[in-house]
Hints:
With 177 residues, the chain is mainly alpha-helical. The protein has helices at residues 2-28, 66-83, 92-115, 132-161, and strands spanning 34-35, 47-54, 118-124.
Amino acid sequence: xxxxxxxxxxxxxxxxxxxxxxxxxxxxxxxxxxxxxxxxxxxxxxxxxxxxxxxxxxxxxxxxxxxxxxxxxxxxxxxxxxxxxxxxxxxxxxxxxxxxxxxxxxxxxxxxxxxxxxxxxxxxxxxxxxxxxxxxxxxxxxxxxxxxxxxxxxxxxxxxxxxxxxxxxxxxxxxxx
Length: 177
């Protein structure tokens, strides 16, 4: 049970931040409206907050797929909860990645169940509008890839440190005299 505290802690922070920011956007910015703090208006062409809704996947892909993505979110959450206990205790990158992905999936699932759509609000350049849950899933994938890379690198270093020359490799002989 103690292992699940880390998973639920990371996921809980992600969900709380996601839901709070979505609530704030819905309460303070009209649908389609934009906002930036007064001192940051120079960022407007590159980054801003935009109140938007999404009935598809992350970053606005596959619109009108709310039911499919609701079911998929339940499957992803169940898979994470099922697989998490088998993760090695020292594999912190996989545990962190799973927590972020769980939080992101649950954050958007909450919107889908309550509103049948997801609130998006972060707009950066020409990139599709997204939210904290989408970012949590994306960062989780990046952490997962980093963990795989680190693990492969560690295994290669161990293999090269303990490698012996092949049996048919020529050996140096010392000439006498």
